[in-house]
Amino acid sequence: EVQLVESGGGLVQPGGSLRLSCAASGFTFSTYGMSWVRQAPGKGLEWVSHIINSGGNTKYADSVKGRFTISRDSAKNTVLQMNSLKPEDTAVYYCNYRTYANEFWGQGTQVTVSS
Q: Which among 48, 63, 65, 83 counts the fewest CB atoms within 10 Å?
């Protein structure tokens, strides 16, 4: 059974940092790229970042470029380091991956940026 379990969310002041982690199990992690996607209150899903299966290439949404860093490790974790957080980064953050036939999501972790 595929499982993606996010952790690391919380309340942080503007300008602060958080480190989100997504623990993967139930599939061959090294085969697939991984993404982070977020959903702000009352808004649709917004793609945030992607890392290819080897970890050798990463991409970011313009809204987070230069502030967020995605990485992955051999323990099957996908990490999103978030620095210089802004109130507009407030959202539920999900990790995600796709096969040809399916798309898998974690349960999400809440990030709230507020003073």
A: 65
Identify whether the C-beta of residue 8 lies closer than 8 Å to the C-beta of residue 110.
no
Q: Is 24 exposed, middle or buried (0-12, 13-18, 19+ CB in 10 A)?
A: buried
Average pLDDT over the chain reads: 96
pLDDT, residue 54, reads 87
Distance, CA of 100 to CA of 38 (rounded, Å): 22
In angstroms, rounded to a whole number, what is the distance separating the alpha carbons of residues 109 and 55?
Answer: 23
Sign of the dihedral through C-alpha 114, 77, 30, 97:
negative
| Side-by-side strand order, sheet with 18-25 | 3-7, 18-25, 77-82, 68-72
